[in-house]
Amino acid sequence: SCDKFIEALPINKNFGDREIKVLDIRISNDQQVVDLNLSKLISYKKIKLITLSNDLRKVNWEYYKVAESLLNEIRLCIENPHYDEPFLLLLDTSNNIRGIYRSLDQKEIERLNVEIDILKLENEN
How far is 98 from 67, CA to CA, in rounded Å? Predict the structure, then answer.
């Protein structure tokens, strides 16, 4: 399953801290709009954000330059219909994938915000 694939990523040491996480899968090109949306997200939501990209990026959160083949494996695993667009994976405190969101779509970012709030409420109980 994709959850097992996520756990097997070479950066999985960053997934073990029992907090809500967003994994940013970035496909080439410098998307400043995505960076801006994610900056707002981590400042308001207090979540862990990790970007995986095959390009060098300058961001204010955890970032890993990875092979394009790894990005392709992730896209195939989750069957992303927008194959060449960046996307986000919402991971719960047990590192299960709770949602997939298109990074360039503002409505998807709003949906991600709501889902993070729901996860936070679930964790309070």
Answer: 25
